[in-house]
Every structure is written in structure tokens, then in C-alpha cells.
Amino acid sequence: MDDQHARAVAFRALHDRDAPVLRLLNAWDAGSAKVLVAAGAPALGTTSAGVAFALGLPDGERLGRDAMLTAVRAIVGAVAVPISADLEAGYADTPAGVAETVRLALDAGAVGFNLEDGRADGSLTPVDEHAARVRAAADAVRAAGIPAFINARTDTVWLRAGDEAETIARLRAYADAGADGVFVPGATDPALLRRLVNATPLPLNVLSHPMLPSVGVLGPLGVARVSSGSGPARLAFSAAYAAAEELLGSPGTYGDGGGLSYNEINDIMNRGS
User: Fold this and answer.
1) How many CA atoms lie within 13 Å of 114's alpha carbon, on the beta-carbon side?
2) Strand pairing of 83-86 and 204-207?
3) Of 72, 47, 49, 45, which Cα lies nearest the Cα of 62?
4) Cα gap 37→27, rounded to integer Å
5) How far apart are CA 270 and CA 273, in angstroms?
6) What is the DSSP letter of 251?
7) Distance between CA 43 and CA 131 in Å, rounded?
């Protein structure tokens, strides 16, 4: 069994509704990946928003496939834990194009993928169309012989573009198309989360949010995974902005924000290099 296959098997094993909730932190470059793993992350996802921000771009598939794959490759090369790639809507207009994106992400070393049905204009991709993309991704994974984890995301709640019945219908359609997990960012109400868990046999992923119950509550509800999304990247950019405001302001002081020291960060970056 090669390393990528082993990482894929290990990543799958982390998605167990009867086990502790997988707390999936999302990195945006090699350095952030090293920091998150040093903090104890057993696996990482990428954040399309964080990768876009680091390149001076807004979120919403403005990034492009090549730039995302470059980031995935760098993150995979920086750490030894399994990496799941945020592929947004697949960077393609057809199922065949999405399958090619998945093949390229596998070549970059990813062992998991997010595919979302939300569009940049705030609408949803028709359910049959997105199910066809999920099916193409599943076929590409099967052909590659790497048991990568396909996480099918619906943005019904996130974009306020569909009710609960629509959400459940989409989760079931994506499960039937070959998804391994389902992702409903924006869902925070415990009663709704329990209904979503009961609506599909697949592991349910949610997005961290101030209104989301703690991990200790999510576990008994049956939630299998909580992702940090762009949260760590936004904190990093916010800290840089705050440092700039402090130095550029009056009287121009130099607080370090109480974070990791130079030596601590340097030691983390030195690991595996």
C-alpha cells in the first residue's frame, strides 16, 4: 500500500458517526498547514477562500483550477497528514471536466474532495446537474484506485436558497450519486442537525460558526465532522491588519498580539524541511 492510499484509508476512518467528531482545520498554504499540524490536527482540508485571499483574490471560483492545485500540492508536500482539497464547484462546466479536476487533485496528493452546488451569483446548481458531477468524481476516484473521500456540499442553508426539504433531497441525491459524506455549511440549529443526520446514512459535515453548538454537543447529535473553513485564514489576515494599524497609528507601538514567538514559528517551519 503506497503512502497516498494509506492516507486515504486513514482519512476515511476519521469519518465515523459513533467516534469523536473530526475537527478538520483548513489550511491555505504550506506554512499554515505546518502550523495547524503542529497544533495537533490529524488531517487538513484546504480553504478556497484562504488560498484566494493569499493570492490577492476574492473567494468564489475566482481562483481557478491551476492555482488551487498548486496550493494543494504545496500543502501535501509540507505535512504528512491526509489532505482534503476544496475544489469549489469543480472548476469545470461539465461532469467530464469535474472528473478531470478530481484526477488532477489526486495527482497532487489529495485524498479527499469538497464539491459544492452553490454558485457565485447566489443560486444553486440544479440538483441533477450537481449529482452528475458527484457521480463523475466518484467514477474518477474509483478508476484511480485511491479510496478518496468525496464530500458533497449543498449551499441551500448557506445561500438561503432552499428549505429543509430541498436540503434533504439534495443530500440524498448526492448520496445516490456516490458521495461519501455530505456538507451543509450554515446549519447550526441542533434540531435541524439531528434531522439532517437522520435523513442520510452518510457522515454529516458542518462548518464552524459562532452559533454552532460545541463539538461535545455535535457528537451526540450524530455529526461526524466540523470544518474550520476560512476561519484560521481570516484570523491570520486580521492579525496582520491589526499589527499594521498599531504601527501606523499614533503613537506607533509594536505589540506582538500575544501569538507564537519568532523561534516557535521558525521551529515549526523547520520540521520536515
Assistant:
1) 30
2) unpaired
3) 49
4) 10
5) 5
6) S
7) 26
Cell 468564489 appears where?
60
Cell of 199: 435523513
Dmax over CA atoms of the chain, in Å, equals 62
Amino acid present at 190 = P
- The C-alpha cell at 225 is 465532522
Per-residue pLDDT of the chain (273 residues; tens, 9 = 90+): 589 999 999 999 999 878 889 999 999 999 999 999 999 999 999 999 999 999 999 998 888 999 999 999 999 999 999 999 999 999 999 999 999 999 999 999 999 999 999 998 889 999 999 999 999 999 999 999 999 999 999 999 999 999 999 999 999 999 999 999 999 999 999 999 999 999 999 999 999 999 999 999 999 999 999 999 999 999 999 999 999 999 999 999 998 877 899 999 999 999 865
- Quick check: 17 and 194 in contact, CB under 8 A? no
Nearest to 25 by CA among 63, 79, 66, 68: 79
The rounded distance, in Å, linking the Cα atoms of 128 and 72 is: 28
Give start and end residues of each alpha helix (H) in the chain.
3-13, 30-38, 48-54, 65-78, 95-107, 127-144, 164-176, 190-199, 215-221, 231-248, 262-270
Give the 3-state DSSP-derived string for 66-113, with helices as H, strands as E and coil as C.
Answer: HHHHHHHHHHHHHCCCCEEEECCCCCCCCHHHHHHHHHHHHHCCCCEE
Which residues, in sequence order, are CB contacts of 203 under 8 Å at separation 6+? 15, 16, 17, 180, 181, 182, 224, 225
